[in-house]
Fold Fic family protein.
Amino acid sequence: MIESPPRFKYDEKVYTLFTQLRDNGELKEINDAYLYWDKIKYKAKIASPQEYWSAIKTARAINAQIITFGKTEFQFVITDYIQQLLHYCDLNIGSNLGSNVGIAETDKTKFMISSIMEEAISSSQMEGANTTRKKAKEMIQKELKPKSKSEQMIMNNFVTMKHIVQHKSDDLTPEKLLYIHNLISHNTLDNKQEEGIFRENDDIYVVNYSNSEVVHTPPNHKEIEGLINELCDFFNNDQKVFIHPIIKGIIIHFMIGWIHPFSDGNGRTARALFYWYMLKKGYWLTEYLAISTIIKDTKNQYEKAFLYTEIDQNDVTYFITYHLKTMEKAFISLKEYIGRKQKEVVQAAKFIKIPNVNDRQAQILKILNEDPDRVFGSKEIENRFNVSNFTARMDLNNLESLGFLEKIQVNKIKHNFIKSKNFNKILKSYKL
């Protein structure tokens, strides 16, 4: 369990220390990183750790903005560092299509589907889904039926993200939230009757499984209806005091975790709601950001951000700072991913020189050239390139007629395609 901070006290000595830390720049450095007591206590050199903490808390209290859900007050501070990250996200995640990441209009859907797959896989793996990324992608691309709870979790997340993208302009209602949870938890809960309904008891705790310690006790189940109505109002309407849309999205994410309205699946639902709100507010690039991939890799920091917030008088700034850093990392990761994919397109360009081969077919040939054991079906081609079943079958049949593919029968109706025995010989004949 995280160590609780000492009681805050305010006196003339603390105020003098506060002004000293403000003037020498130390206060800005600590608040930009938004350090918690467990780090701050080691930085105290000119006063006792308790006085140092009180001086920091004084600065935070002066600049805090208060919001209320139910009977509970939450606060957050917009630090210089948070303002910098908000500006960065406004420029890059809400900018015009392709201006900063180089996504061509023709590649938009392909990148979006790939990113949604990554988000679905990582968000599910954080909640215990145990399968490889390659196997999960294959299941989604080929529309295979999930064979385990882990695979079902990933498929549910993928379906949910696609649903959100299609309904991104909608307002949030309790009924729509329940529908999201129903999609995300389908066939994955111990009790199927708990899919798409708010919890009806208080037999639920957030536990640190390494030592079985309870780290969060959610509000009473009788408060859920009122809290969710307030959260929907927060989601749909502007507040009296302006709150930046990204900050609001992060608070929505946090509040689902804090309220814990469901028996299970709260984390996946919270992250889905964040995506929904960001898209609703025009941050189009969120569709392409696999934020949960970054969260999964920094899960310990993610969990600590929740704990710091609750232990330190519901100061959501810890969670906001962590989340914005994660968005920045996800955007950088997206740019690197697009760079790799663009390089792959360039590498596939030589295959386009083959007569009667289009750009999709050229990419299929590139994949087969690098992965000789690959098996293609029309469903995978549909999903990979976002084309109709007819177009997918035409692409595969054309490559078969050119001698690059061989057809293998799966059953009386279905067949797939594999690399032909003459693939290398035919490719060599074109002298690419």
